[in-house]
Each structure stands twice: as C-alpha cells, then as structure tokens.
Amino acid sequence: MYKIISNKKLAENIHEMIIEAPRVAHSAKPGQFIILIIDKKGERIPLTIADYDKEKGTVNIVVQAIGYSTKKLVSLKENEYIKDFAGPLGNESEFVHEDIEILKNKRIVFVGGGVGSAPIYPQVKWFSERNIKTDVILGFKNKDFIILKEEFEKLNCNLHICTDDGSYGFKGLVTNKLQDMLDNEEIDEVITIGPMIMMKFVSKLTKKYNIKTIASLNTIMLDGTGMCGGCRVSIGGKVKFTCVDGPEFDAHLINFDEAMNRQTTFSDIEKKHSCRLDGAING
Amino acid sequence: MDKRIKMTEQDPNVRKNNFFEVSLGYTEDEAVEEAKRCLNCKNPRCVPKCPVAIDIPGFIQEVKKRNFKKAYEILTKYTSLPAVCGRVCPQEIQCESTCILGIKGEPVAIGNLERFVADWAIKNNIEIKNTIEKNGHKVAIVGSGPAGLACAGDLSKMGYDVTIFEALQEAGGVLTYGIPEFRLPKDKIVKTEINKLKKLGVKIETDVIIGRTITIDELIEEEKFEAVFIGSGAGLPRFMNIPGENTKGVFSANEFLTRTNLMKAYLEDYETPIKVGKRVVVVGGGNVAMDAARTALRLGSEVHIVYRRSEKELPAREAEVHHAKEEGIQFHLLTNPVEILADENDWVKGVKCIKMELGEPDESGRRRPIEIKGSEYIIDAETVIMAIGTTPNPLITSTTKDIEINKKQCIVADEDGKTTKDKVFAGGDIVTGAATVILAMGSGKKAAKAIDKMIRKNNS
Which of B223, B266, B272 to mutate to test the interface with A (most CBs of A within 10 A)? Predict the structure, then answer.
C-alpha cells in the first residue's frame, strides 16, 4: 500500500498528487513513468513522473481526470492509500547521459501541452540544477487551465505560456510560438510532451527546419515492463515497445497516425465505464 | 491390463461458457484405485524423467494405503507446487511416457495422482512445518514464477532468509498472468501454494522491477544479499512482422491472457477492459495458443487456431488440444498468416492465410513448413491473438554489469544455474528460452543447491 501524501487541484480536472514510494523515488530519473493500481479491482494506470524527492521518498504525479480510473484516482484524499505503485519504468531521457559541457552550449526548447507540462518539469529542473538555461513553451486552452506556472518560474528557464484564446500570454498554439522561435533564433533541439496530435504537429514543424526532436509517447499499456506488447509503435518502420524501448523517441521517425489510432482501441468500453463512475461518485 | 481411471470433467458444452476448472479431480476411491495400478518398480523409469526427480512410486504407494498425508509429505520434499505440477506438467512426455504399463496399455496417471494428493492437502489444511532454524544468510530471487518459487522454497527449507522481488502486483508469474483460471484456479491453487511458501518464511515484495526500481548490483552491494537468483522468465512477446500487425484488435497472447487472468477483465466489476470480436484467430500451436483460444471462446467468440505445421507437431499438451477440440475450437493446420486485413476504422476484419506443406526436417528436428504458392485464403475475424512465443526481456541483462548473454538474449548459465557474474544465478525461461513450468522449477531447485554450496563455502 502506498500513502497519498497530498492531493492538490491544479486546474479543472487536473490534480497533482504526491505519493510515498521510497523505492521508486530512489531510482527515478527525468523521462520515466510509473504504473499505479488504485484498488483490488483497479486497472494498471501508467502516469509520467512529474517530480520526486529522494530524501522524503516521495513521487509526484499529475493526473488529468478524463476516464473512469483517473476520476476515481483524483477523488482520493490525503492519507488514503493506493494499492500498487510500481516504477520507475521506461528509459531516462537521453540528455541525462550527455556531456554537461556539450549540453551547456546547446539551445534546447521544451514544448508541452496541458497535462503534458508536468513531465517536462523534472526535465527542465534537471537542466536548471546544472545551471543550464532552457526555453519552455507550454500551451493551454485558456488561463484557467494553466498549471505549474510558479514552479517553472522558479527554474532557470525562459517560460513562454500560450493559450488558445489569448486569455494569458501568447495567443495561439505552441506550434505558432515555436515557429516564431525557429524563424528567429538558433535552436539545437526540441523535446515535446503532450497530446499525441500536438506532438505530431511539433514534429512536422521541426522536420521542416531539420531540428532534432524528441517526443515522449504515452500509449496504451498493461504491464509496462515489455511483457504485453500492447504499447507497440512504429519507429522508422520498425516495431518498438514504448515501455522498454521508450517512452522517448526521435519524433521524426514516429508513425503518429498509427499511434493515435491504436490509442482508441478501448475508447468505447472506457465511455461505458466512465458513465458508471459518474453515477457512483456524483450520485 | 486395467485401464486408467478417467478424471471427471465438466461437459464441454457447459464449460465453454464458464471459467471454472475443466477437470474435476479424483475422488479418494478413484485415486486409490488408480494408485493400485502402479507396479512399484524396483528401478522406476518414471523418476529420472521428472525434472525435479519426485519419488513417484513412493508417494503412489502411500495413496494406495490411503495415507494421503504421508503421500503429501513425500511429494513436498521434491516440489513446492504439487497442485500446480499435477495440473500443468506435460506428464505424457515426462514421467508417464516411460511407465512400464504404457508399453502395452495406459501408463499410471501420475499427474492426476499428484494433483489429487496436493488438492487433498489443501482441502484438509495440511501444512508441512519447516523446523529448520534460520541461518541468517540473505538470498534475493528475481521473479515469482515457477523457477523463483521453487528456488525460494528449497532455500527457505535450508534455513535461508529469502526475499522474492516481483514486478507485477501479484506473485506467481506465468501461473498468475498466463495460465487461465479454468486450467489452474488462482485463488484456490496458486495463491494457496504461494501462501504455504510465505509460511515457510519466504518474503515477497511486489511492484519491484529489477533493473529499474533496483538493480542486481544494488541488491548485492547496498542491500547485502549474498546471492541472487534470476528467474524472470522470457518476457517479450514475438510478433510475425507481417503487414497489418499493428491494426487495432491484434493482441499478443501475453496481453490477452494478462488482461483476463491477472487483471480479471472477464469479470464485470473489474476495471481493466478486454475486447474480443465475434470471430477470433489465434496464431500458434503451443499451450499458450490453446489457453488464449479457450479463453476467447469463453468470452463468447467463435475461435480458429492457425498453425503452420501439422497436428503431429502441435507443441501443446495432448490434453489441451483434446479439450480445445471438444469445446469446438476450429483448427486450421498447415496454415500460416501472411497479412492482417483492416477495415476503414483500422480494426481487424480478417486474416489472409496461406496453406503450407512439410519439407525436410529443420534444426528443431521437425519438418519445415513451406508455403504452397497461390493457396491464399481469408479467415474473417475481428480479433487476432499472436501466440508464437516470447524472447527474454533485456531489462535485467542491460542493467547488470558483467553478465554474459547469448545470441538469443538468454542469460548464459551452467548446469547449476551459475552465471558469469559472481554471486548471480539464473534459471527458467531467461536461460533456456520459453519452456515449461516443471523445467523452470527444476532449474530453480538446482540453483538453490548451488547457492547453498557457494554461501557455505564463502562462510567457511
């Protein structure tokens, strides 16, 4: 059993939860994820690690409550427990292994969207702790959906917030902002995490400029250790498993259309489940 | 020569609609009758064919005398999982294959008797007490499948302080996520046998992924385990690399079976979804293929098995093939898929197959299947399950220093399970590639002996 240390609402349907999981916290690195199970009958839910504290033995996750299980998860309170919390899973980001001096001379831009801003945080923090300034473009529907703004502001980065309706920051999509930067500045690398469709368009854009781009995929997964093969994606025409080969891949090689298609495998069943929960929680 | 006592089974027409166990087991009288058939050979030919060398005539003689408890005591000297072995071992190619009675008639039903004794012990709450004092030496086991459990059981009986690390939320490995409920009940059998090991003092830590949560080197250096046994199995599912394989509705047998067995997706109130079409094609002819096919059948589908060789080469246990046929699963032998066809929403709508014929034997000793040109045809289906084997998971080997692997990504280990890395042993599918529960258990037992020898030597 894993204790919920805190559960904070960041925006409508988006919660940050801190979970006590010393073994996971001990080994966590930027780019990795966890799988949790709420209770005996719960499913295995993969979620990206949003932060971790090795000393306290805690791991942060940011959850968007859209389906049955995520709604149930965010309804849990401080000091309650979840049954399982396994990780860290997947490979750490490639930059963790790069030479610091080389990284210092690189201009890296992070592009996140919505809840995808959360997994970007430990990555930017990693650079910030090594005194490397990065650029961060985060996109949200409107100002009410902005998350982790204060946290990012404390890091050594240029933060650019975009909203679809212009209610805060840059008016437009992250790709609009990114294009501005690509047109006017020297950029070496882009790292993008967020909705699949957003990553697809970021990738399309950077390909035109021939800029190395990494995307982090959040596919349908069961065990997360390579056993089920459900998370398979086509990378440069070859089949890879997101959980053991990823989750980060060269974005220009990802078959995004196939990946998006596979994500809808269980969507009709999910809808049925969700309705049942709305009744159970609200009713 | 008397015929063997048949085990009662659920009617095929009833059982294809439920997940209850197919074979119902012997009654006490039936077991005694069957045991009487054993000739108690002076030089039993069955024992050397058993990977864990159970004293087979020994336990059967006790059944004959209705000393079921004594029979159980004999069994558990050799196996920590008799109720499992009695159900899933391929007895027909092991112990029973050399039984003297089998020359002219039917061999003694050793598997059925083993199952009877183990079930009797469970029903009567018989526990074997471990009276050995703890020796304080710590051993870590990676994976709680048959290899790990066997190794843990034996080490614990020798007095070791054993901790098993399991990546999933429940112990049992393939016994829990792979083999279906109707062949191996989870609560009644698997959990009960694992709980017996816990009572012997074996600790099980779930949700720990060795290679990610903690590495083998850390277990030795930081957590001070004096030996590590890796029994992590052959994890990654194989696919065929044919067009359309990433279409929605194509699953690996691992995914399909894990959703049903471990995550209980077939039960209405569990949250993991499963999707199975009106018609299902299962590719492969092993036990896993039979398990996937019979599971899909129970979820309400019409099921077709596609296998590229002939009936004679089917690698599954005879009993499973027989059960599958009784339940109405259709076999397309000498047939191989060449393409998965998708509809406009990118869901599977059929499998294009080609007929095969058998040529000269290949390196496996079996006649090699060759495509018959122009014989393609389509089987309509909405779900395809690939049950064509697995390859070892690189998670552990890629994060462990100085451990040698071979071309097939398997860990290199000697007869005793010793790897190229100091203090590290391995066994089961991670060494041999996908094999059977009993072979994995055999390797776990051998490694337990070797670990004991090494630790004694290091401390003398």
Answer: B272
**What was the ipTM of the complex prediction?**
0.91
Q: Are residues B265 and B352 in the same domain?
A: yes
Give yes or no: residues B207 and B308 share one domain.
no
In this structure, the answer to whether residues B407 and B319 fall within a common structural domain is no
The model's pLDDT over B235-271, given as tens digits with 9 standing for 90+, comes to 899 999 999 999 999 999 999 999 999 999 988 888 8
What angle separates helix A196-208 from helix A174-184, to the nearest 10 degrees?
20
The residue range of the domain holding B444 is: 138-234+392-459
Residue-wise pLDDT for A204-229, tens only, equals 999 999 999 999 998 888 999 999 99
Mean pLDDT computed over A245-262: 94
CB contact residues (below 8 A), chain B span 181-210, against chain A: 206-209
B129: in domain: no
Residue B3 lies in a domain: no
Q: Is position A63 annotated in a ligand binding site?
A: yes
What SS3 state is found at B456? helix
A226 touching B (Cβ < 8 Å): yes
pLDDT tens digits, one per residue of B354-376: 999 999 988 878 889 999 999 99
Pair B369, B247 in one domain: yes
Is A190 marked within a binding site? no
| B239 interface with A at CB cutoff 8 Å | yes
Distance of alpha carbon A199 from alpha carbon A165, whole angstroms: 20
Q: Closest-CA residue in chain A for B395?
A: A244
> Is B295 a domain residue?
yes
CA separation for the pair B190, B381 (Å, rounded): 34
Domains in chain A with CATH codes: 2-89 (2.40.30.10), 94-216 (3.40.50.80)
The answer to whether B242 contacts chain A (CB < 8 Å) is no
CB contact under 8 A, A43 and B246: no
CA distance B231 to chain A (A): 15
Report whether A62 belongs to an annotated binding site: yes
Mean pLDDT of B48-75: 95
Nearest neighbour of A41 by CB, restricted to B245, B270, B346: B270
Q: Nearest CA to B313 among B331, B295, B330, B338?
A: B331
Considering CB atoms only, which of B209, B246, B249 is closest to A225? B209
Section B151-178 average pLDDT: 95
Is B345 found in the same domain as B298?
A: yes
Residue B314 lies in a domain: yes
What CATH number does the domain containing B275 carry? Answer: 3.50.50.60
CB atoms < 10 A from the CB of A261, how many?
18
Answer whether A61's CB lies under 8 Å from A48's CB. Answer: yes
| CB atoms A85 and B209 under 8 Å | no
Number of folded domains in chain B? 3
Name the packing angle between helices B146-157 and B192-199 (round to 10°): 30
Per-residue tokens: B347: 């869901």
The Cα A200–Cα A217 span in angstroms is 11
Chain length of chain A: 283
Which amino acid, B422?
Answer: D
Q: Tens digits of per-residue pLDDT, A22-41?
A: 999 999 999 999 999 999 99
Cα–chain-centroid distance for residue A68?
A: 19
**Nearest Cα to Cα of residue B148 among B191, B101, B202:** B202
Q: Which residues of A touch B241 (CB under 8 A)?
A: 239
Domain match, B344 and B455 both: no
pLDDT confidence tier of residue B393, bands split at 50, 70 and 90: confident
Last residue within a domain, chosen from B371, B386, B401: B386
- Which one of B75, B97, B124 terminates a domain? B124
β-bridge partners, A49: A61
